[in-house]
Amino acid sequence: MPKKNKNIFLVAGGTGGHLFPAVAVAQRDKTKNFIFVVDTRVEKILKKYKVKNFVVSSSKFNKNIFRLILAVFKILYGTFQSVLLIKKYRPKLVVGFGGYTSIPTILAAKIFNIQTLIHEQNAVMGKTNRLLSKISNKTAISFNSTKYAKKDAIFTGVPIRVFKKKKIKKDKKRVLVLGGSQGAKIFSQIIPKVLIGIKQEYLKNLMIVQQTRKEDKTILESTYNKLNVKCTVKEFFDDVQNEIYNSDIVIARCGASTLAEIEYCKKFSLLFPLPTAMDDHQLENAKQFKKKNDCQIYNQNNIPYSKLRELLKSQLFYKNEIKTNLQESKKISLIKFIDDIIQ
Predict the structure, then answer these.
(1) CATH 3.40.50.2000 occupies which residues in the chain?
(2) Alpha carbon distance 66, 80 (integer Å)
(3) What pLDDT was estimated at residue 87?
(4) Which of 60, 73, 176, 262 has the fewest Cβ atoms nearer than 10 Å?
């Protein structure tokens, strides 16, 4: 009897925000053979997970006519590469998680009449997923009110990567500052300004754990030392989920995976949407997140420093019950949705 084909392609490119939900699916479902199709940018991130992966050519579209022509050729070449991969591995399903890499592989899947699924992480559907959802068999969304999503889209949320919870001994309140893939230089300016106005009786019982850019690291460490605030400042955290788990407050951008991990760990958060995000999707993510999680949203260009200081003291040093699932909505897991499609 022939062996049942359990190959499934997981396609992601551009940023970790597109890749991490795909990784989560592969980690949580060991009954299938997941093969990653990525671009060179996320291939570097993927190395630590030791999964089978292939790089295909892709490109974003550009208004410049010469770059547009080049982009078309790159996508055509990526489609040819994807055709060869599909002929070799014959996947039952191709799942696109966003980023331009999804275009050639989803197109190749349609050539072979293979089932396709698009997963959108953000509250505003990205341009690539908007385009591909028109030809995809199914669409999964992470927020109930995702803008531009099809009416029959299924609410699955964002899959969380597997991690082993490691409780650490704490003698100070921990504030975790996450800058996202761009490092958020603005946090290196905002956080010290907030702390300068707080009395030493509070600061001596505080620890800042912050992700920042390489060029800001030394100055930031020096600033916290002058304020007598214990700190750990890094460009990248290998185990960011446990950093969230062990924090008392998370200060962060509003990428979908980051918000999902904050929600999973039930942490109070101060959110600063990236103002340059495409279609202002980070602000929309934050608004949707706030409906069922305890958080505050701030415009980085108009920060009420006095109120922010008082909120930090209140949340850190006085008992406050964290409110979660304020308006919980029913969802099915993305893994179950995949199972339903390939049955």
Answers:
(1) 7-162+331-342, 173-317
(2) 21
(3) 98
(4) 73
Long-range contacts of 183-186 (CB under 8 A, 24+ apart): 183/211, 183/212, 183/213, 183/216, 183/235, 184/211, 184/212, 184/253, 184/272, 184/274, 185/212, 185/213, 185/216, 186/272, 186/300
Look up residue 150 and give its two tokens. Answer: 């099809």
Amino acid at 69: I
CA distance 278 to 296: 22
CB atoms within 10 A of CB 75: 21
What pLDDT does 2 receive? Answer: 47
Distance of alpha carbon 208 from alpha carbon 148, whole angstroms: 38
pLDDT score recorded for residue 246: 97
Confidence at residue 343, expressed as pLDDT on a 0 to 100 scale = 72
**Contacts (Cβ under 8 Å, ≥6 apart) of 63:** none
Yes or no: say if 78 and 57 are a contact pair by the CB < 8 Å rule. yes
In this prediction, residue 179 carries a pLDDT of: 86
CATH tag, 7-162+331-342: 3.40.50.2000
Residues of the chain with pLDDT under 50: 1-2
User: Structurally, what CATH architecture does the domain formed by 173-317 represent?
Assistant: 3-Layer(aba) Sandwich (3.40)
- The predicted pLDDT at position 321 comes to 59
Q: Is 280 helix (H, G, I), strand (E, B) or coil?
A: helix
Residue 65's pLDDT is: 87
Q: What is the rounded CA–CA span in Å between residue 331 and residue 327?
A: 13
Amino acid in position 243: E
The most distant pair of C-alpha atoms in the chain lies apart, rounded to whole Å, by: 73
Among candidate residues 106, 109, 107, 108, the one with its CA nearest the CA of residue 119: 106
Chain centroid to CA 339: 23
Nearest one of 16, 109, 101, 4 to 59, comparing CA atoms: 101
- pLDDT at site 5: 73
Strand, coil or helix: what is 168? coil
